[in-house]
RNA sequence: GCGCCCUUAGCUCAAUUGGUUAGAGCAACUGACUCUUAAUCAGUAGGUUCUCGGUUCGAUUCCGAGAGGGCGCACCA
């Protein structure tokens, strides 16, 4: 695609010049609107032919000229309304100038409501103002009737262009707008839910001198004045837990985490994470909180017109299955007492590749994914993970080979990850040092020892339950969206 | 990173086995039309067929390389 003016764009420039020559400012400062489109339509009672004066504003999305009259449709955030222009109502000058208007122009009109012969509520335009001349045609689609069925042809089907030019995608696709309205409702519902349970919303650093709280490769940047490296956070966890030390018993943060990994249909380098921490609660208590939060979020999305139909019917309490017994049932032997060789054989049988290069924890994880995770359809809590898979969780009371951890799965995907959080600074130091050794050995997904965090723990960190929920993933689950790029307004793309 | 597929007018898509001047709808432009709504009718214009190279008398079509994208796999505890 070229940035040179093509003939369509040149025609619009010429109209712009003609408007200016006629004394019409093509880019206005504002407009006083009395009604949104759907409100204006609703204000004319059924059966009534004529109504009062309204002022509406929006984008011209259809234009049908008829010599000395013209019909148009105007779209705003609420919907669309028809406009009716008459030469003998507007005067020759104004009516003739309508030829300089195009589909895509943002205009404001005033006039009285009327009902057309076919019953459509319409504004009989008495005055019209150009608010923003459109110099580039929007790729509106077309509808046609094929064998009695209405087929919508998008005018903008190339996914790449839709992601790159989300503004145009939104402008021509009402269903895309509806989806992102639903996303906003989801976020709002989570805030309302947590605020209602006395959680405090906080903001913690995105630029961090040490990254931690997850295992991922970070984005690295540099602060010039301090002449030091900084990392974009891969998780909020360690800062939120510092705040619990400070006396904020219930905190949460909704924000972006950044992970320098591959891009695919479920991964974007920056994504929206919810983390919340509740002092004195253990992981079992957090399961009931998560259940209620997910149901509340699902209800919020379900209420959005045009999106809600895809939301699964959720019936709490969600099933809880234990990690070890469920995997044992899948493979047919006891994985905890099995030798590495037995695990490798089972992994090979399950279709796992390169089993000889995998560590024991990785083998267990692969087996669990193949035999249990992928088969989970309806929301299900998996609880009590082996300690070697969960270095950040507290040991399980009465069984130190396990941890007090749960993950929530649905449709084979992880929706939430939670622990009874480690609050023993001596244990924490040992785990940090083990991570630091791995990092020094070349694993750049591992961070070093966070001395400041240890200092915070040494002051006394209350026991707490902590939960992380990837909100893009949750939204994708609730709306049955297959690609994360359809759930993020401006997904990460290569430069054009 | 690997495999498969895609890239033609502003947009959505055609183009027979490699063969005349690369077509259609919408959008655009000119004209007609005072209740239309996929408005209608008559006409006009619009192309580096992603880029570079090769094969051929001849390439949108076949081959090679590159760019961008989509899907799947792998990676992402």
Summary of the model, kept short:
By secondary structure, the protein is of the alpha+beta class. It has 15 helices and 20 strands. It has helices at 7-21, 37-42, 87-90, 92-97, 159-164, 166-172, 174-196, 237-245, 283-302, 323-331, 340-349, 360-371, 425-440, 451-458, 471-479, and strands at 50-66, 69-76, 79-86, 106-115, 121-132, 142-146, 149-153, 200-201, 207-208, 220-223, 228-232, 250-258, 270-279, 320-322, 380-383, 395-396, 399-403, 405-410, 413-420, 464-470.
Written overview of the protein:
The chain has 496 residues and is of the alpha+beta class. It folds into 3 domains: 7-132, Beta Barrel (OB fold (Dihydrolipoamide Acetyltransferase, E2P)); 142-172, no CATH class; 175-319 and 378-486, 2-Layer Sandwich (BirA Bifunctional Protein, domain 2), CATH 3.30.930. It is built from 15 helices and 20 strands. The strands form 5 sheets. The protein has an 8-stranded mixed β-sheet with strand order 8-12-13-20-19-18-15-14, with helices on both faces. Helix 11 packs parallel to helix 12 (360-371). The longest helix is centred in the middle third of the chain and has 23 residues, at 174-196. It is elongated, with a radius of gyration of 29 Å. Mean pLDDT is 89; it is low at 144-151. The structure holds one RNA strand of 77 nucleotides.
**What is the CA-atom radius of gyration, in angstroms?**
29 Å
Tally of individual helices:
15
Instruction: Please state how the strands of the largest beta sheet are arranged side by side.
Output: 8-12-13-20-19-18-15-14
CATH architecture of the largest domain: 2-Layer Sandwich
Low-confidence stretches: 144-151
Specify the structural class.
Answer: alpha+beta
| CATH topology annotation of the largest domain | BirA Bifunctional Protein, domain 2
Main beta sheet: strand number and arrangement? 8 strands, mixed
For the record, give the distance between the C-alpha atoms at the N and C termini, rounded to a whole number: 11 Å
Helix content: 25-40%
- CATH hierarchy class name of the largest domain: Alpha Beta
Question: Tell me, what's the shape?
Answer: elongated
């Amino acid at each position: 695609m070229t940035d040179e003016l093509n003939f369509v764009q040149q025609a619009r420039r010429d109209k712009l010049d003609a408007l200016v020559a006629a004394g019409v400012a093509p880019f206005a400062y504002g407009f006083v609107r009395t009604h949104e489109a759907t409100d204006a339509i609703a204000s004319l009672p059924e059966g009534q032919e004529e109504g009062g004066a309204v002022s509406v504003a929006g984008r011209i999305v259809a234009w049908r000229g008829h010599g000395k009259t013209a019909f148009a449709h105007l779209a705003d955030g609420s919907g669309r309304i028809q406009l009716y222009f008459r030469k003998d109502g507007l005067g020759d000058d104004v009516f003739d100038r309508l030829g300089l208007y195009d589909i895509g122009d943002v205009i404001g009109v005033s006039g009285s409501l009327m009902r057309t012969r076919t019953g459509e509520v319409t504004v009989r335009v008495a005055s019209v103002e150009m608010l923003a001349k459109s110099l580039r045609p929007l790729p509106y689609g077309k509808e046609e009737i094929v064998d009695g069925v209405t087929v919508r042809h998008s005018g903008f089907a190339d996914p790449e262009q839709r992601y790159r030019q989300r503004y145009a995608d939104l402008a021509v696709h009402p269903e895309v707008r509806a989806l992102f309205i639903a996303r906003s409702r989801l976020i709002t519902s989570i805030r309302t839910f947590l605020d209602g349970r006395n959680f405090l919303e906080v903001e913690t650093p995105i630029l961090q001198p040490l990254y931690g709280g997850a295992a991922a490769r970070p984005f690295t940047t540099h602060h010039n004045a301090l002449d030091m490296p900084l990392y974009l956070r891969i998780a909020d966890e360690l800062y939120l837990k510092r705040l619990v030390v400070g006396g904020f018993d219930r905190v949460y943060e909704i924000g972006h985490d950044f992970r320098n990994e591959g891009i695919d249909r479920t991964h974007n380098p920056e994504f929206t994470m919810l983390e919340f921490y509740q002092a004195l609660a253990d992981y079992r208590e957090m399961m009931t909180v998560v259940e209620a939060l997910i149901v509340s979020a699902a209800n919020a999305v379900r209420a959005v017109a045009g999106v809600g139909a895809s939301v699964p019917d959720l019936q709490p309490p969600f099933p809880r299955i234990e990690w070890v017994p469920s995997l044992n049932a899948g493979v047919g032997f006891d994985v905890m007492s099995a030798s590495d060789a037995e695990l490798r054989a089972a992994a090979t049988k399950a279709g796992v590749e390169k089993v000889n290069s995998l560590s024991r924890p990785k083998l267990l994880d692969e087996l669990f994914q193949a035999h249990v995770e992928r088969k989970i359809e309806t929301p299900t809590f998996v609880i009590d993970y082996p300690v070697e898979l969960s270095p950040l969780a507290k040991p399980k009371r009465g069984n130190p080979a396990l941890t007090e951890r749960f993950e929530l799965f649905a449709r084979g995907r992880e929706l939430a990850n939670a622990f009874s959080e480690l609050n023993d600074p001596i244990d924490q130091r040992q785990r940090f040092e083990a991570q630091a050794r791995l990092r020094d050995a070349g694993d750049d997904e591992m961070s070093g020892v966070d001395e400041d965090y240890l200092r915070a723990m040494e002051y006394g960190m209350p026991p707490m339950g902590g939960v992380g929920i990837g909100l893009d993933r949750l939204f994708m689950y609730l709306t049955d969206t297959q690609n994360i790029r359809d759930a993020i307004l401006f997904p990460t793309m290569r430069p054009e």
